[in-house]
Amino acid sequence: MEFNKMSWVLAFLGFMFLGGICKADGATHFYDFVLKETNFTRLCSTKSILTVNGSLPGPTITVQKGDTAFVNVHNQGLYGLTIHWHGVKQPRNPWSDGPENITQCPIPVGTNFTYEINFSTEEGTLWWHAHSDWTRATVYGAIIILPAANTTYPFATPDAQETLILGSWFKGDVMEIIEDALATGGEPNISDAFTINGQPGDLYSCSNETTYRWLVDSGKTYLLRVINAVMNEEQFFAIADHDLRVVAQDAAYIKPITTPYILITPGQTMDILVTANQPPSHYYIASTSFVDGNVTFNNSTTTAILQYNGNYSTPSTTPFPTLPDHDDDTAADNFTKQVRALASEDHPISVPLNISTSMYIAVSINERICANSSCAGPDGNALSASLNNISFQTPSISVLQAYYGGNTNGVYATNFPDIPPYFYNFTGDVANNTLYPSFGTRVRMINYGEGVEIVFQGTSVIAAENHPMHLHGFSFYLVGTGSGNFNSTTSPTTYNLVDPPEVNTIGVPKNGWAAIRFVADNPGVWFMHCHLERHASWGMDTVLIVRNGNTSESTIRGPPAYMPPCSNS
């Protein structure tokens, strides 16, 4: 989108002046994102929502592997916010990663900030979204990373492509919803609908005339890119009478899986081959919640229509896919356990075998004590959440800027614990163990080049459920999952160190554990958090800071000439 050529010149020179441009072999792309309020009508009513360039979803960024994109974000909205490029590793460049007050302060209203997005090893589908409070409910879009020049897919080139983004729609103002919940200490309101490419679909009121339709030609094979941008629920997804052949997850190729449905957590992306091999007609595409905990959630179903081109009679009944029940742990487990890295000569993996940093992180819902039992959560207290019994408090200035400038006093402490403060039966009768967390901004320092293993341990504190954990700045290997409590002796014997999937977001099973590994080869400040927004808002977050190595190529880049100020958002 053309916006203001002079603003592009100034922004580009700003990156050149201090931070420089990361050396890349690929092409350079330029985008303008204009944040503004736009009226949308859904579910029989009209409201103003924050959008990028007036659309929902927002614009798609399309690049090839190894390219660089500059995105100039002009904030014409009502409040400051930031944008995150979910799953993009941003080598040595956390300045453009985006989480609010972790790597930058919000872009003030009436100003602009240019992000430099450095694509490296990613290939496939990722996405971008706002990373300030709950603004990502309407500020999101796809990132398509095509194979590099003179390379191709590890499967037959599809005839065409399609992107479907799963989202949430709230009748109320999303910022007011989370602000009210945090003020009262209770659960935030659930969404009123799920959407596919911004449309709720036929099963909701006032929605059937705008249901999204994907037009296909009989006999052709399509590369379908599915993104879960839903706020608080994992999703089962299927297409009536059509098999899904999953070939990539989180912009990394996997051994193909043929399945009637997928499970996709908030934050995850999947690339799927779909062949239009059924009698020409209309077929429902559907997505519904997977929630296996005793929590409030949206139990509705969003739909779109796969519609064959050509002349035929419109069917009186449109076939509907069979989706698992919302709490079907077996269906969820059966899908996720099939996912394995392609691990081919052209797409190799490198699982770290020498581990020098090990962390065992208990993932919990908690309570914050309220005076006189005056809050709306359990026992008159406020709901909170924690990692290793530390409920993260977002600082008022950027962790990255404090770290880089060496002025960390009062911003954060470096004592995030490697193990829980107490060991108990995490997935059994937890009594009041760690019901009340401590609160603070604690980070974990990691030396450059270390092999890191993190075991996320689900707990039954207040409410056991599946947690989609996301780490910025890295793709990591999901080397193992299991039920119950992790056993440091027996559980590692079940690890897959041959072809584990390389991902950026994983679901920690309800009352179970998940183990990930990665090499800390990306210096910088990187956020780690649950991608269920209510949990992130309650404090289920922390920060990993990877120190510089001994060479210029293992050292964090300098900041750009301009960063949004921390005093005016």
Automatic annotation (TrEMBL):
Lignin degradation and detoxification of lignin-derived products. Its cofactor is Cu cation. It is an enzyme of class 1 (oxidoreductase). One of its GO terms (biological process) is lignin catabolic process. Its EC number is 1.10.3.2. GO terms for cellular component: apoplast. The keyword Repeat applies. Belongs to the multicopper oxidase family. One of its GO terms (molecular function) is hydroquinone:oxygen oxidoreductase activity. PANTHER family: LACCASE (PTHR11709:SF410), MULTI-COPPER OXIDASE (PTHR11709). It catalyses: 4 hydroquinone + O2 = 4 benzosemiquinone + 2 H2O. It comes from the Eukaryota. This is Laccase. It is found in: Secreted, Extracellular space, Apoplast. Residues 36-148, 163-311, 432-549 form the Plastocyanin-like domain. Binds 4 Cu cations per monomer. Keywords: Apoplast, Copper, Glycoprotein, Lignin degradation, Metal-binding, Oxidoreductase, Repeat, Secreted, Signal. Residues 1-26 form the signal peptide. CDD domains: CuRO_1_LCC_plant (cd13849), CuRO_2_LCC_plant (cd13875), CuRO_3_LCC_plant (cd13897).
